Amino acid sequence: MNISIERVKKLREETGAGVVECKKALEEAKGDTEEAKKILRKRGVRIAQKKSGEATNQGIITSYIHHNGNVGALVEVHCQSDFVAKNSEFKKFAKDIAMHIVAFDPRWISPEDIPPSVIEEEKAILRAQAEKENKPANIINRIVEGRMKKFYSEVCLLSQPFLRDEEKTVKQHLQELIAKVGENIRIHRFVRYDLKKISENN
Q1: DSSP readout, 136-175?
Q2: pLDDT tens for residues 145-180?
Q3: Where are the beta strands (DSSP E) in 86-164?
Q4: How many helices (H) and strands (E) would you count in the chain?
Q5: What pTM was estimated for this model as a whole?
Q6: Residue 36's CB: how many other CB atoms inside 10 A?
Q7: Are 180 and 48 in contact (CB under 8 A)?
Q8: Helix 170-181 / helix 33-51 crossing angle, nearest 10 deg
Q9: Which Pfam families match (predicted)?
Q10: Which end of the chain has a smaller Cβ tally under 10 Å, C or N?
Q11: Which of 44, 58, 85 lies closest to 174 in space, CA to CA?
């Protein structure tokens, strides 16, 4: 199938993927742009999974302070090479994550970071709610698991809808960046400062 350079360019602008990858995805999707986007996302996930075990010894620490000066965040993002650490897209991603942390106030990076006691407590609360709603006993576990996903999307950075594109999670955006730069990237840690919370605790 003959794919015009204009369509390849448009897909590249919308996804950030390379020209060759966009052309291949459009050919595989028989010219369907939305299907090509899905293909690119799946490839990004596969690449990210392959890279996930590779060591990340380089990176950047960046910050964002809200214009009112009362809320700010520091975030440490790791990558594999000094070359990627200096890459403008990598730096922009780190800055966007710091801004996202200020806006969405996550408590942990991923569900795996949540203490087991917190998860068990939340499940107990959700189970009690489902029982109070007179949900059938045989589906309560499924209801609890479904509501736990919502809980994760509220408190875990990687599970939250991304500030710049709420159609994707932070994790999906991270996977796309990994596929683009060809290196493992990891959000190592963050801290969020809020003067209002400090004053409430004093």
Answers
A1: -GGGHHHHHHHHHHHHHHHHBGGGSEETTEEEEEHHHHHH
A2: 999 999 999 999 999 999 988 888 999 889 888 888
A3: 161-162
A4: 9, 5
A5: 0.72
A6: 27
A7: no
A8: 80
A9: EF_TS
A10: C
A11: 44
Give residue 63's identity as a one-letter amino acid code: S
Structure tokens that stand for 130 in this block: 């489902």
- Among 170, 187, 126, residue whose Cα is nearest residue 151: 126
If you count them, how many residues does the chain have?
A: 202
Give the number of other Cβ atoms within 10 Å of residue 50's Cβ.
12
Cα(199)–Cα(202) distance, rounded to whole angstroms?
5
- Return all residues near 65 (Cβ < 8 A) that are at least 6 apart: 71, 72, 102
Q: Which two tokens stand for residue 55?
A: 């060591």
Say how far apart CA 75 and CA 191 lie, in whole Å.
7
Q: Strand locations in 12-108, DSSP E?
A: 58-65, 71-79
What are the tens digits of pLDDT across the range 86-117? 989 899 999 999 999 999 999 999 999 999 99
